[in-house]
Amino acid sequence: MIFYFSGTGNSLYVARKIAERTGDQVCSMSEDAPDRPIGGKDEKVGFVFPSYYGNLPRVVQGFIRKLNIRPETYTFGVVTMGAVGLGSVTMLEKALAEKKLTLKYGCGIRMPANYIAYYNPMFFGRTAKSGAKIRKIADDIQSEKALVKRGRLISARLYQKIEELDRDFFADDRCSGCGTCESVCPVGNIKMTGNRPEWLHRCEHCMACIHRCPEQALQYGKKTKKRRRYYNTEI
Q: How far apart are CA 92 and CA 113, in angstroms?
């Protein structure tokens, strides 16, 4: 099984491409964790997710805590990242170790950088160039290669005052009330109230709502209005 978490679609894209070669089932970490033991001898369980400040997204942390993985399972992790992010591999290894599990394979893959709250999205061509890298990762996993590429935690600031992360989101006058933001939010943090989005204070800061708004009406603070939007068009 390959579990993924994705906002703009990069991690889902990578998870699906790996699954095409490995034949694994792709499941969302935004859903409930399986209520039964998974994995086992000659079985694989993997995690594909974006790097948030070189850390694990909160939803990934919580999902792993709830998983019951058999100790003999081959576990792997693939982190999608804009620049640096191998600290997320280190944090995944730590999260699994707390469950008495050993991360067998962990690496990162560079994808378009799209954290629009801090910078203008860039490197849009990376998706087209990622195919060979993804195939290599999938083949490594198929052969149960042992390799963990670790990095350091860049910052834990994203996880300070998590309930306040969405306070700077708003919809400007271009909002049509279409509800796209509500439907694409991977953690159900948005509801439409009077044809306007309302954020519910359990945000993961994936920025899916901003990037997927067809009117480019959603903003975060004062800087996003003129910034490019991005989502993986393969998804």
A: 21
Q: Please, are residues 235 and 9 in contact by the beta-carbon 8 Å criterion?
A: yes
Average pLDDT over residues 140-153: 92
Q: Which class in CATH covers the domain with range 161-220? A: alpha beta
pLDDT for 152 equals: 78
Whole-prediction pTM: 0.94
Q: What integer pLDDT is reported at residue 172 of this predicted model?
A: 96
Of 148, 126, 130, 134, the C-alpha closest to 22 is 134
Buried b (16+ CB within 10 A) or exposed e, 84-105: ebbbbbbbbbebbeeeebebbb
Q: What is the DSSP letter of 222?
A: T
Provide, for the chain, the percentages of residues in helix, strand and coil under a 3-state DSSP scheme, each rounded to the nearest 5. Answer: 30, 20, 50
User: Which three-class secondary structure state does DSSP give residue 80?
Assistant: strand
Please report, rounded to a whole number, the percentage of residues in the chain having pLDDT higher than 70: 97
Amino acid letter for position 23: G
The class level of CATH for 2-148 reads alpha beta
Per domain, the residue ranges of the chain are 2-148, 161-220
With a CB cutoff of 8 Å and minimum separation 6, the contacts of 194 are none
Position 178 confidence tier, pLDDT thresholds 50, 70, 90: very high
Answer yes or no: is pLDDT of 17 > 90. yes
Q: State the DSSP string of 85-100.
A: -THHHHHHHHHHHTTT
